Fold:
Amino acid sequence: MSEKKTKRRDFLFTATTAVGAVGAAAVVWPMIDQMNPDASVKALASTEVDVSSLTPGNTLTVLWRGKPVFIRRRTQEEIEEARSVKMEDLIHPEKDEDRAKNPEWLVMLGVCTHLGCVPLNDKGDYNGWFCPCHGSHYDTSGRIRKGPAPWNMEVPKYEFVDANTIKIG
Amino acid sequence: MSDHDYRPKSKVGQWFNDRLPLLTLANHLTDYPTPKNLNYWWTFGGILTFCLITQIVTGLTLAMHYIAHADMAFESVEHIMRDVNYGWLIRYIHANGASMFFLAVYIHIFRSLFYGSYKSPREIIWILGIIIYLLMMAAAFMGYVLPWGQMSFWGATVITNLFSAIPLVGEGIVTWLWGGYSVDNPTLTRFFTLHYLIPFLILGLVVLHIWALHVPGNNNPVGIDIKKPSKDTVPFHPYIVIKDGFALLMFMIVFAFFVFYAPNILGHADNYIEANPMVTPAHIVPEWYLLPFYAILRSVPDKLLGVVAMLSAILILAVLPWLDTSKIRSAVFRPLYKQFYWILVADVLILGYVGAMPAEGLYLLIARVATAYYFLHFLVILPVLGFKEKTLPVPLSITEPVLGGSPNLAAARNQESKIE
Structure:
């Protein structure tokens, strides 16, 4: 068999199959990609929130890209509790200093990293959030402490436009 | 069998049949030799066909009034319930029809498990059945999303998020499935499209399922190979047609009870609240027919492994013909398997029960034990049992057990061995 010479026909078979495969892929890709977020969905990339009415110990929930965002004005005790936790006690170690640049304000996606439910405020074993779906407990920094969720609640890109306005996205 | 000899009586029939042998097919279906000892557990194939057609017909009529848009879907369902002539009836038949469909399919599957219908030479029938079952779950899930109530929305969120457990590409896949950054209008419109498509895929697979069935013929409660046609078989029409028809009528009484007297008992009250992406209902539970798998998902504390366990619980069924090493099909002749079979039935029911309960404390412990046992049954007990179990003697023919106590037994055996 090893002596079998490559024939002109073998080349034609290979070349035809290769061109056919490229052609099929070129047709399939638009069919797949049409399901990805479209231009109008992507256009809603940022939202501005007035937080002047928020007093310490309260949470504002706003919708950004179809998902709830928690804006929590934390009390001094909550900040201290979040900052005193040892890194080795965390499932997904992140410093509170990195999650809340301005310690009074915690901004994060109100989406449980397990299967996407909205956790409940001021609930759970760690005084933070509790997800009613499958029982994940988050602390006052929104970090996962107990339950099936693998990560801390995500901190989106945000900035203070002025003292009373947060721009998310 | 007379399949090849069949000739229509009329000249027109012959002319047509020579060009398209539909009459030969019809003749095959009516004369199809069926084991004469089939019991009522065998009537669920026909009942399932009825369920599929009911879902397609009611689904088509609902689609004439339903609007697949996040702002209008919930209202359009209420419009169907209140304004459309008999809309309430059509929707209640469709919604409860899904439950009836699953009720029938579970009986059908557990019948196969008891009588070993999945074993050689019927593996392809079985695998086609598992694919149909998977498509049924996909169709049911997407259909439940369409009314755009709270359970619709959060059920869709939780189930699509299962894909986020896949390492690296998971988040990208979820965004792709949603067509956005959360479950929203693009998700609803594509679910509607797929919900419309899947029943027709199921219909095609049902044709293959029945085709594959008609090659070896039906298994039967005794689980032995039979000659066909022979004195062990009866023609499908009228014998099985009448029996299936009677069973279907009984089934329709149960169906009608739910539609007319308890149309919402199998649903969830939260789904009469319009979808709200800001608030998750306190208890998210899937429809009853998905609860055992939901319990398995929640019993594993790790996200990825939970998803893997849940999918494995379904896919393990596809390789069942090779996990069960016993040559004897029917549990009637397998005294040990028969006991394990009933333990499995209880195990699945327990999983269903704890799936509806909060995942904590004792419920979680029970769910974990039941999940472990589920896999133990398929991966350890079944393979080992085939080698260790002492099975009972299997009769030579279907007729033999009937004649067992009579002096004709020797004659029957004699005749059987001659035919062999």
Notes: Strands of chain B lie at 33-35, 233-235. Chain B touches chain A at residues 154, 157-158, 160-162, 164, 175-184, 186, 190, 277-284, 298, 300-304, 306, 358-360 (CB under 8 Å).
